[in-house]
Backbone:
């Protein structure tokens, strides 16, 4: 047997192949949708949504907090667009702060910091040691209400205490639905070339006051928070259009220290933010400046991503900064994050995020707040992608790609 193995290895070497490089051709390549689907199926009974072509697909998981884990525009062998942290699934004990499974669209509750924070117990100092993500959106399963090839409905009930000591009984509801290519074009008012491949999904997120007391400015109120985690490359740039004619600051750029000037720039009502996963920074756009769309372009892989969401320019948004001396209802409506190493050299990702939040949920018992958030990806001919970028984000791919050269 040993002699036979040696002969087999010799044949492979003579053919220019090392034995260790041989792989099962039936197994999908890492980085593809099929590879991520196989991985997630081994951890969970995930639900796969498909458009009529079968090329556009989306993975949803009730077990993992109703996440959209990832999607593709080109079937099992197509690129997997969502960021997944594989090693988190094998940890023996839950992380006390946050269990970073990843997810192309995950739902959190806010505010993270401030006088009505849901991440810090009353009276504790707002520092990492005391920061804990609410279990309902961190590591607890959700209830599956219904599922089809096109749509999944899920729900979760939880009880939280905010930093002000207010007890909150909350019910969350979440629908995730894949969109057909024609519907994507209608929603975005585009006429995509047939050479472009696309996938899109819509999430409808609901927050219900399940208690017997109203939530107001004195008690504090929660909000819904959609966070889209994507895989960076050296050539990813986040694009955030904003209302150029509004007064006041354009963006909060110092959530985790001021973003370096060589990583952020402004061009005629469009903010551009380098998202290579190598420098930790977060920014936010206030509601009176925010538009209902943001996106990113990966020039290395020719992937255009668009996110679309609800924005109310006159509503009160919660301040999520880790401090208690700021006005609690002066927060941002749209956020973007680029991951990078911490001071100790450790890093959660790399990944980058595009985020949207709902206004503060000032609800009476039984009332509901709804926040809609959609994600779209396009791949294919660059000229065709450029037309989509101009129509949706108001900027050309060349302007995006050369913003930080």
Residues:
């Amino acid at each position: 047997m040993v002699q036979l193995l040696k002969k087999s290895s010799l044949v492979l070497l003579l053919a220019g192949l090392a034995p260790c490089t041989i792989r099962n051709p039936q197994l999908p390549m890492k980085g593809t949708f099929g590879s991520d689907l196989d991985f997630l199926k081994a951890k969970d009974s995930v639900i796969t949504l498909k458009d009529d072509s079968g090329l556009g697909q989306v993975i949803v998981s009730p077990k993992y907090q109703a996440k959209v884990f990832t999607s593709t525009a080109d079937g099992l062998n197509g690129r997997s667009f969502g960021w997944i942290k594989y090693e988190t699934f094998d940890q023996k004990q839950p992380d006390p702060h946050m269990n970073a499974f990843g997810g192309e669209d995950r739902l959190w509750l806010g505010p993270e910091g401030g006088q009505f924070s849901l991440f810090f117990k009353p009276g504790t100092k707002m520092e990492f040691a005391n920061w804990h993500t609410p279990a309902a959106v961190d590591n607890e399963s959700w209830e599956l209400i219904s599922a089809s090839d096109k749509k999944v409905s899920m729900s979760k009930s939880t009880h939280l205490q905010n930093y002000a000591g207010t007890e909150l009984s909350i019910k969350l509801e979440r629908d995730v639905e894949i969109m057909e290519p024609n519907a994507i074009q209608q929603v975005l008012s585009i006429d995509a070339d047939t050479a472009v491949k696309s996938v899109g999904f819509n999430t409808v997120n609901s927050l219900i006051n399940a208690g017997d007391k109203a939530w107001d400015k004195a008690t504090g109120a929660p909000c819904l928070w959609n966070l889209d985690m994507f895989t960076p490359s050296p050539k990813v740039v986040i694009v955030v259009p904003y209302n150029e004619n509004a007064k006041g600051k354009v963006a909060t750029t110092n959530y985790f220290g001021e973003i370096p000037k060589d990583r952020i720039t402004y061009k005629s009502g469009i903010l551009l933010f380098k998202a290579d996963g190598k420098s930790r920074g977060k920014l936010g756009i206030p509601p009176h400046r925010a538009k209902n769309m943001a996106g990113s372009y990966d020039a290395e892989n020719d992937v255009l991503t668009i996110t679309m969401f609800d924005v109310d320019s006159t509503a009160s948004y919660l301040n999520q900064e880790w401090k208690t001396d700021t006005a609690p209802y002066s927060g941002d409506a749209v956020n973007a994050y680029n991951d990078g190493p911490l001071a100790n050299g450790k890093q959660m990702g790399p990944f980058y995020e595009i985020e949207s939040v709902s206004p503060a949920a000032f609800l009476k018992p039984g009332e509901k707040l709804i926040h809609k958030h959609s994600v779209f990806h396009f791949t294919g001919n660059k000229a065709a992608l450029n037309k989509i970028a101009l129509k949706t984000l108001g900027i050309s791919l060349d302007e995006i790609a050369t913003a930080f050269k």
